[in-house]
């Protein structure tokens, strides 16, 4: 049995601590107030400060960056943190843009985090599609991450990344048993009243959870930004109406407070 400590810092940003490793997902540490251009005439404003500043974090061994080109997943302060991290794992296009220690992974490609005295963590990039069909040339590449190490009893830790529910995502539970899922939600639409979604709604998140059957589901990427179309109440409502096992799997983490989950 392996205990993992997870701290939800805000938006998609979490600190994952296990076996001496400190992993940071999608670093966003700018203060509230700034507007970010997402391209193709879209933008959004950050509404809340992060629960921690980079200076309040322990040394980071690796950053798991689902994509580098949207400010709600990598903002200015998050980008400034990257050189101090031991490794950055991201998309192949993102690694080319970032350079340095960045390792680029296509979907289903694998890299390993290794260090003396620590368990080796196998990182598999999982498919993600950040919008409707044929949107990739516009929105760019995104990946999720499946984390596997010796001693996991119930399955992997899976970070879905910013994605809609589609066939590629459904293949992940076919390949891996999932114990803990960091589920990116938000129901993002551009324009905000338009019909096209760019991340999962809470209802689609529940549908994915019914396929995955994870023991623990931690929702992230649903608060703190103006373009998120669904907030905590929407997430709670969707899970309250879900089957019992899915409803029980929901683990909402207080922003900024570490919590322990078993893998």
TrEMBL record:
Keywords: Hydrolase
InterPro entries associated with the record: Metallo-B-lactamas, RibonucZ/Hydroxyglut_hydro, UPF0173_UPF0282_UlaG_hydrolase
GO molecular function: hydrolase activity
Residue ranges of domain Metallo-beta-lactamase in the record: 22-222
Protein name: MBL fold metallo-hydrolase
Organism expressing this protein natively: Polymorphospora rubra
